[in-house]
Write a structure and sequence with these properties.
This protein is mainly alpha-helical and 422 residues long. The protein is built from 17 helices and two strands. The protein has a domain of 228 residues: MetI-like fold. 16% of the residues are buried.
């Protein structure tokens, strides 16, 4: 015998009901089993139906002369208005009333959220205050200025003011103990006629070109290798960055001992190979390139770290696409890796030119500009002129000329980068 489970379209109770056993007599002798289905039409439903029929112009139903006959469940369902396809506006109201009754009887449970101490309080909307004018010190635009004010004050006090004061000194025969005599542009004319000044410019330019040539590719190669290894990245980054962390004076003294002609480490290594001792810092042919090697060694780790950080933003999908196209290791480097590093190369080249053209500490500690001014750069010549000969006016004029050259170079490079980005 089959088991039937009661079902109601309005009942959303989640509890499972037990199946009901239907007697054999009813299942064999009755077609619809005379089952009473819940929510049969009531007198209120009949009144609603009559009212709707009047509104739509239909014939009023005949009033029953006696008590309404008891209808079977199937007939009762057919007499419901919304099952007959009639349009009515009271269906929503009737559904709400039916749900309300079932809530009262407990057949429909209200699933409201239980209040919690973690509930956020409902705050009333705050009125939007009128904004202040742009010239107001507390306006929206002025807030950015106040955040930048400490940095701007530091820059004006330690950079801008000394620069303006240096330009004023360059127009005089400056005397720190007596009265300065204005001379106009005489110091600048003297610089253009000074052969030693032009030699320092050439030495600084040669130092810059050599440092770019020798120090351009090592950080890129190290960054690519560091990006490919799986273990020991932290250790290698520490070892590569360690020379940059060492202060310039101890590093210069260390390499001065390595390059020493008599008991230096480098000559001790080359002597068993049959190479006679070389005056790395005393021979004019080797002095400048020796300082360049020391400078490259000290700054390679910093440049490598910047290139390595840029490689972290390179999507792996580009390498996968190159592999699908059949590219090998070298094609991946030249067609994927290096084009990704081009913007960083431009920026670092500008920084390296600005740094090497103004080099002072390494040269002054290792050679002091010798031998025979072979390593004399603009920084050391300005220092000797200002604090050795006490000619501060002429030294300030040379400093202003170096600043003008570097400023023009930087602006030209940035404009070139802007055009390339477009």
């Amino acid at each position: 015998m089959k088991e039937y489970k009661p079902f109601s379209i309005y009942d959303d109770d989640e509890e499972k009901k037990k199946p009901v056993d239907i007697p054999r007599e009813l299942s064999e002798n009755s077609s619809d089993l005379d089952l009473e289905i819940e929510d049969v039409p009531t007198q209120e439903d009949e009144k609603t139906r009559e009212e709707l029929m009047r509104q739509f112009g239909g014939p009023p139903p005949a009033a029953p002369s006696g008590p309404p006959p008891v209808k079977k469940s199937s007939e009762a369902m057919e007499s419901v208005p919304f099952l007959q396809g009639q349009s009515t506006e009271s269906v929503e109201d009737r559904a709400k009333e039916l749900i309300r009754k079932r809530q009262d009887s407990g057949k429909v449970r209200d699933r409201r959220k239980v209040a919690s101490i973690f509930d956020k309080p409902i705050e009333p909307d705050k009125a939007i205050s009128a904004g202040k004018a742009f010239w107001h010190p507390l306006s929206y635009r002025a807030q950015a200025f106040w955040f930048l004010f400490p940095a701007l004050a530091f820059f004006a006090l330690f950079y801008l003011y000394p620069m303006v004061q240096g330009f004023q000194i360059s127009l005089t025969h400056f005397s720190p103990l007596g009265k300065s005599v204005p001379v106009g542009w005489e110091n600048y004319q003297r610089a253009f006629q000074d052969s030693l000044f032009w030699q320092t410019v050439v030495n600084a330019a040669a130092f810059t070109l050599l440092s770019l040539a020798l120090g351009f590719w090592p950080p890129i190669v190290l960054a690519i290798l560091l990006n490919e290894i799986s273990y020991g990245k932290g250790l290698f980054k520490f070892l590569y960055l360690l020379p940059f962390v060492i202060p310039a004076v101890p590093a210069a003294n260390l390499w001065k001992w390595i390059f020493d002609e008599g008991f230096g480490v480098l000559n001790s290594v080359l002597q068993p190979l049959g190479i006679s001792p070389i005056g790395w810092l005393t021979d004019p042919r080797w002095a400048l390139i020796s300082i360049v090697l020391m400078f490259v060694w000290k700054n390679t780790g910093w440049f490598m770290l910047i290139y390595f950080a840029s490689l972290q933003n390179l999507p792996e999908e580009q390498y996968e696409a190159a592999e699908i196209d059949g590219a090998g290791v070298m094609k991946k480097i030249f067609n994927v890796t290096l084009p990704h590093l081009v913007p960083v190369m431009w920026i670092l080249s500008i920084i390296q030119v600005l740094t090497t053209f103004q080099i002072f500490t390494e040269v002054f500690v290792m050679t002091k500009g010798g031998p025979m001014h072979a390593t004399e750069v603009i920084g050391t010549y300005i220092y000797k002129t200002a604090f050795g000969a006490m000619d501060l006016g002429y030294a300030s004029a040379m400093a202003m000329l170096m600043f003008a050259v570097l400023f023009i170079f930087t602006m030209a490079r940035f404009l070139q980068l802007k055009q390339v980005s477009r």
